């Protein structure tokens, strides 16, 4: 029950920190997009290059969403179309064809800082078929820290896995508010003032913000949620992209 979650918000918000990600990940049979190796390094647009492998695509069009994050800033948010299997090069570019982000970084990417590269294979756009994450020690060095399918977690009592995209931003409830299952569809539950969670974006009207908290996705009035000013998020502006 959501009410039970809210009553134990302090404890569960700590557990929530292990969840990394707006849409559920539902892996399609066999379709994949994986990083095989790092080939070139550098911190200007186009310098950092990898070899990727695409497998079991059916010949139709897929979107690869690439997000590159360093120091809390996003340096790439690209939508690229693929349709064929095999290996090819894949580079980091100053490209935001998937959409603008509130925390866009300026090139060159800072050297000597851990760089996270998230890839999702989507069809249609926004429906994730496969996810992959590469983490390296810096754009200038390219030593791999981890490379594989990103982990998700099941919280006790939950029957779904929650995926938090890299564009999500830490947020805080500013006033005790009703929780909505969908924009305009109020529940009988509340989120208390001070509760921290992740904001994913807003509905078409901008009146409601979609959030993820422990076991699920919910909506709250936009005027009842604000930035999280802790040492991690430092008041970063909340995303204003329209989400479903």
Notes on the protein architecture:
The chain has 2 domains: 2-21 and 162-227, Roll (SH3 type barrels); 32-148, Immunoglobulin-like (Sandwich). It has 244 residues and is mainly β. The chain is globular and about 50 Å long. The strands form 4 sheets. A 5-stranded antiparallel sheet has the order 4-3-6-7-8, with no helix packed on it. The chain has a 5-stranded antiparallel sheet with strand order 14-13-12-9-15. The two termini are 23 Å apart. A hairpin with a 2-residue loop joins strand 13 and strand 14 (216-221). The chain has 2 helices and 15 strands.
**Helicity level:** under 10%
Number of helices: 2
CATH class wording of the largest domain: Mainly Beta
Judged by helices, strands and strand pairing, the structural class is mainly beta
Quickly give the CATH architecture of the largest domain: Sandwich
Number of domains: 2
Mean pLDDT: 82
Spans of at least 5 consecutive residues with low confidence: 3-29, 152-157
Total number of strands: 15
User: What is Rg?
Assistant: 18 Å
CATH fold group of the largest domain? Immunoglobulin-like
- N-to-C terminal Cα separation, in Å? 23 Å
**Fraction in beta strands:** 35-45%
What is the succession of H and E elements? HHEEEEEEEEEEEEEEE
Instruction: Give the neighbour order of strands across the main sheet.
Output: 4-3-6-7-8
User: Which sheet architecture does the biggest sheet show?
Assistant: 5 strands, antiparallel
Described by the principal axes of the CA atoms, the overall outline is globular
